[in-house]
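help with this record:
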Amino acid sequence: MDYDVIAIGRAYTDIIANVEEDFFSTNSLTKNIGNSVKPSRLENLFEKLVTPVYKGGGPAANTISCLGALNCKTMYIGNVCDDVQGQNFINELKNLSVCFQGNTLNSSSKNISPTCLVLVSPDGDRTFAYNKGVADQFDKDSLLSVLNENHAGFVFIEGLVLNGEAYKIICDFIGICKSKKIKTAITIHDMEVNNPCYKKAREFILTNADFIFANENEASSFFEVDCLEEILCTPTLFITRGDKGACIIESGNIYSVPAHKTDSIVDTVGAGDSFAAGTLCGMVNKLSYEKSIEVGVLCASYILKQTGARPGHKTLLEFQKIKNTLNL
């Protein structure tokens, strides 16, 4: 079967809840950052939450959800368990016309779906408690068989999965993509710089990616520069710049587009992921890179008006208009 985009990532479910300020000190959590915790502790923290809301997360899954909403033919590959989080994750993708092609493993006290508690304090700040669970338990034969049975124009991969135990399997997958002339796009969002695998993951991305997606800070850190003008990279780089819009860097040349005017910003979570979706949608439809990032900026502006990274009902309606507006 032919797909426009196949995505691979860590299949996180975000569980969002409001908490009081003393929740962090009482539960020995560091505020405003990610706290990696064991499954048993995660369950203990979850039991203390009031009216939690489940939302599918993960950069690749957010991007592929938006692509599905843009009527692109899409597949997502990730790993979950047969628990509540895993079932919610799969159902949410299917509702957005995304084919889920991943492992659903048996849950246990140690085996859980990738889960992140998003703890919102009274000042609006977000603190995270997470466990990656079975996120990196890719089966090599199953993963590589996807490319034997299907074809795609693009693959979109979280750099995070190259930072873990799945490094070799994902490298092999990308190698086959290159042999089949499938373009590889990688998002470097949240690639843990202190991770022991980071250096070799970075080198692999620089050598093998066709496209890299990042925000301004991530790009500066990844390319080890003080300003974007210093980046001289082989992969084409797509960068979000907040209220300054976005830009492309290709062979040292920079092309910028302004941000799309948004009356009110409700939530910035997922804006970069939807930008990637719009940009990929443009490229799927044979638009130039410059025109493609205009689509990306427009998609991001709609996600900014809602809570959560996956397109809600109103955003779905706006996404349906995009193709007609831009003559895709």
